[in-house]
């Protein structure tokens, strides 16, 4: 039986009731990314993958992208080594079209041109669970959820744990966490530091461009009266990333001493009520990002910088209705602002409301909903969504979903020196259907999907033009210029012939193309395959594992004239418990030293060896 403390924790954000990896999750595992409220995964028709703390521990290391590559339909691009800007795509979407939540707080950088989230600033330290929903879902989550939603939950801990590892390229990663969790209250604190000399950001460079980050986080809950609790969380990260630029006299991409400092602060505080038929969750969330760029060639002061902030008040809830029906609902109001060294402060407000009615049973479930958003700068948007699932046999389940998405134009796109106040939101329609089979030794799934997008916003050069949209825009502006389609197939297979041995495979075929030109969208490989195996040997519980990631070639530009090579990257890893509280671990990344760039002109990481110690109590 689960204790009351564990059940309470499971009801928040992304409650974890199991610790099995990816597709092999238990049927009654709980997620919130489907409806905004706690919902069993097998009662939603939407495709959701869960990575747990056990997965992150098994895969080892601070680089979160190695874990995300265990998700079907997910690809990424990185401008250099660890810590460099890293964009994550779902089913061929832009990286800015994936909504990222950290403990329920929208983590996008509203000062960035596309307002996306940089996964180069996020490590695995302190993470309890990652839920990934693939496909448009703006009905529940609003703007930016065109490609999908990645929801990250940090740990609520009872005890303490710490880890430290070091290895190639002067790398070190240290993490520590401590907490107290009881039925009526809990408090957890986490902290970490990561550093590496890295590799040259410029592929032609020889000077390594490093990365360092220190971070702090915390979570708290307190039961005020039975059923009503105060909940809060906070995260702060300070990241320094070396970057390269375009030095004189050639002004081509090459080694420079430039670097970037990014400071991220986010948090949320509120109340949660859990009754017999009604659950309510309300709070206030803050997300603040400061980015400054330095060039020591010209002194110690920042050359330029940006500031972005989001302040959001929200209410979500679920009402249980007769005959297995439930109504999920929510409303929120968000104020965003940004400014830059060369841009005056600009603000916008967005107010939203949504409702989703569902019928949920063990045999079949069906849900449908709508959302209305009103934006102070562009107007309003309405989105719809529906999904369903039916159990065909005890082991076989059919699921399907339809979702609409929208992404509001960013403040930079609307109001900067390059802005266009006539921009409309990007829109999408997403369809998928799949079959899942689950037994004690085999878990398998196949999903087909399609997403049509319109009103895509892109930068338009005004070189040689001075009229029309280019009036008073000598360098360029933004406009709704694109239509795109992404379709394909995802296949997942997990085999566990004996308890000590597990093999996993994930394959995705994605064709993402511009409907105007017929060209492939940039940096979207059509084929991506991940193979993974783990064996706990009879020798003192020594665990041995290996991962292989293969991607096909892709193009780096819209004209499809610059090719990015595909290839394979392999990792081997091992862990050995030396005590019931101590574990030694080690791994070799990129065993065959295949340096595969995911952005043209940027460097890629080669072979590296790492070892460390983990302590848990």
Q: Based on DSSP secondary structure assignment, what is the total number of beta strands?
A: 33
Main pleated sheet: 22 strands, antiparallel, barrel
Percent in strands: over 45%
Q: How would you name the CATH homologous superfamily?
A: TonB-dependent receptor, beta-barrel domain
- The stretches of 5 or more residues where confidence is low (pLDDT under 50) are 1-26
Number of helices: 5
Number of domains: 1
- Average the pLDDT over all residues and give the rounded result: 92
Report the structural category.
mainly beta
Termini Cα gap = 21 Å
CATH level-3 fold name: Maltoporin, Chain A
Bin the helical content: under 10%
Backbone CA Rg:
23 Å
Form type:
globular
The CATH level-2 architecture is identified as Beta Barrel
Q: What is the CATH C level class, in words?
A: Mainly Beta
Keywords:
mainly beta, Maltoporin, Chain A, 22-stranded antiparallel barrel, 5-stranded mixed beta sheet
SSE layout:
Layout: H1 4-10, E1 30-31, E2 39-40, E3 48-52, H2 53-59, H3 65-68, E4 74-78, E5 86-90, E6 98-102, E7 105-106, E8 127-134, H4 138-141, E9 148-154, E10 159-167, E11 171-181, E12 185-199, E13 209-225, E14 228-242, E15 259-274, E16 278-294, E17 304-320, E18 325-340, E19 343-360, E20 364-375, E21 379-391, E22 396-407, H5 411-415, E23 426-438, E24 442-461, E25 476-498, E26 501-514, E27 527-536, E28 543-551, E29 554-555, E30 563-564, E31 567-577, E32 582-589, E33 608-616
Parallel strand pairs: 6-9
Antiparallel strand pairs: 1-2, 3-8, 4-5, 6-7, 8-9, 10-11, 10-33, 11-12, 12-13, 13-14, 14-15, 15-16, 16-17, 17-18, 18-19, 19-20, 20-21, 21-22, 22-23, 23-24, 24-25, 25-26, 26-27, 27-28, 28-31, 29-30, 31-32, 32-33
